[in-house]
Amino acid sequence: MVEGVEEHLSVGRVAELAGVSVRTLHHYDEIGLVRPSARTAAGYRAYAAPDVERLREVLAYRRLGFGLREIADLVDDPATDAVAHLHRLLLRQRDHAAAMVTAIDRELEARAMGIRTTPEEQLTMFGAKLYDAIGSAYPATRRTEPRIAARVWDALGDARTVLNVGAGTGSYEPPDREVTAVEPSAVMRAQRPADAAPCVAAEAESLPFEDRSFDAAMAFSTVHHWRDPIAGLREMRRVARRVVVVTYDAGDPAGRERFWLARDYLPEFADLLVGWPSLADLTHAIGGRAEPVLVPWDCADGFFEAYWRRPEAYLDESVRRAVSVWTRVGPEAEQRAVTGLREDLSTGRWAERNRDLLALDTAELGLRLLVA
Ligand SMILES: C[S@@+](CC[C@H](N)C(=O)[O-])C[C@H]1O[C@@H](n2cnc3c(N)ncnc32)[C@H](O)[C@@H]1O
After folding, report:
1. Which terminus of the chain has a lower count of CB atoms within 10 Å, N or C?
2. pTM for this structure?
3. Distance, CA 285 to ligand 1 centroid (Å)?
């Protein structure tokens, strides 16, 4: 119970009881779906029994697969026909299932002609295999960075149905649209929160969906793990009207020079980029434009570049284990880089070399938003 507000529950307690995240409850409040009817003296959300009852109803519809907008219609208007909604939902699911059957038929046909590996082999040989190995360390530091998420969600425009490719644990899934996730790594799929969007085991290069089955397709920090990035992006283009991708510009050596970690401690990072498609090729595959994404100094998502103004973070093993670069360069390079950095931090050499960074709030380190 929240102090000073009788018979009310705190947001944390409601989240715990309902088995959803606090972030979800905040979002439901922001969009007016489930508004706590009171606030504590300190301004915290306080849920009364009818609020909790409404939340229960919302979550029941969510489990049936309704989108948040449809749920809002259902719970706000008692005259709305829930059965008609359910009918529409089942038709949509039937269409998706039919699309998957078509994709599997295609795969079987190709296999009969001896031109492809089995889907299972495909899923274990490339990026997914890596994430099955390192993925359990991912959630320690990898989470939504709200300022970058806002850019992605803005770029999705008015898309109602969104396919999230290489979705991982779902950090960048917009909470207010109907999301379908695609993620080939079983370890990553298993770590998705209980209330996350439904997730299909598949690869970007062969999406099991009909042409134009989504309003938008998005991919965040995953394209560089794909066996064939261009093929994957073309697939996204095929299945959606709009495509939104956050990736890295590997063809900009000046950009690489700007990031002291790769430049001064981990030159092996450049080797990982060999053979990567250029930004122009990636953009061309979806027929769109590219914009820089600046990394805030206090970035909440611990990707490789995230701690550019907090160098001590890279000394932390859990920070490194959540970023594939460190596994891919191998233990020797990793140890050498960490030892060098530790030494330079203690002698003040790092601060001397990177003094200018301390005055910056954001950095341009090669991240790009592609929109088509
Ligand atoms: C760095 S994680 C990013 C996850 C998520 N998008 C995020 O931002 O939190 C990269 C993800 O790409 C997935 N991946 C690897 N190969 C893939 C492929 N061929 N198609 C789709 N996803 C793939 C990995 O399994 C992993 O979950």
Report:
1. N
2. 0.70
3. 19
